Amino acid sequence: MRLVERTPAPDEPDKAIACYGAVSQLTAERWLYLAEGQPNSDLTILCLQALLQVAQAKHKRVLVVICDRASWHKSRAVKAWVRQHNQQVKRQQTGVRLLTVLLPTKSPWLNPMEPIWYHTKRKVVEPDGELPVKVLKERLCAQFHTTLDAATLKASG
């Protein structure tokens, strides 16, 4: 089965969602970040901010984020924001530094989140491809054992 791009009804309020995920290599904890609309630089920055809050709460000094080469992961806006964030952490000598690593082209097996996405996609798709955004969100949350009421949705590993 494959996710099929569907044409939403003109009156449908939610036409797309950006779905970001992260996994801790040490604890196998997973995080899901859902946002309205197509993925873009602004949503990527919001997701990074949410992950930094998690790292701060866990008293980490450095957060390493491995990204594929999607345009919104490597945009000028994201690079500038990461640089500015790290400069601020260095000046204030407090906070969590952010290290982003871009994967080589066509190498999804190097991304620790990729197997989770693979199994998640297989469990949430519909054979006919018709899956409204609201239902997709609910299924993603169920798969990650969480609810829709938080900005950053955490799931156990």
Describe the structure.
It is globular, with a radius of gyration of 16 Å. It has helices at residues 41-57, 76-92, 114-124, 133-143; strands at 17-23, 30-36, 62-67, 97-102, 152-155. A 3-stranded antiparallel sheet has the order 1-2-5, with helices on both faces. With 157 residues, the protein is α+β, with helices and mostly antiparallel strands.
What would the keywords be for this entry?
157 residues; alpha+beta; three-stranded antiparallel beta sheet; two-stranded parallel sheet; 5 strands; 19% strand; globular
Shape: globular
Radius of gyration: 16 Å
**Average pLDDT, all residues:** 83
Number of helices: 4
Structural class: alpha+beta
What is the oligomeric state here?
Answer: single chain
- The order of strands across the largest sheet is 1-2-5
Show unreliable segments: none
Helicity level, as a percent range? 25-40%
Distance between the termini: 25 Å
Helix and strand pattern: EEHEHEHHE
Strand content: 15-25%
Write the layout of secondary structure elements.
Elements (H helix, E strand, L loop, with lengths): L16 E7 L6 E7 L4 H17 L4 E6 L8 H17 L4 E6 L11 H11 L8 H11 L8 E4 L2
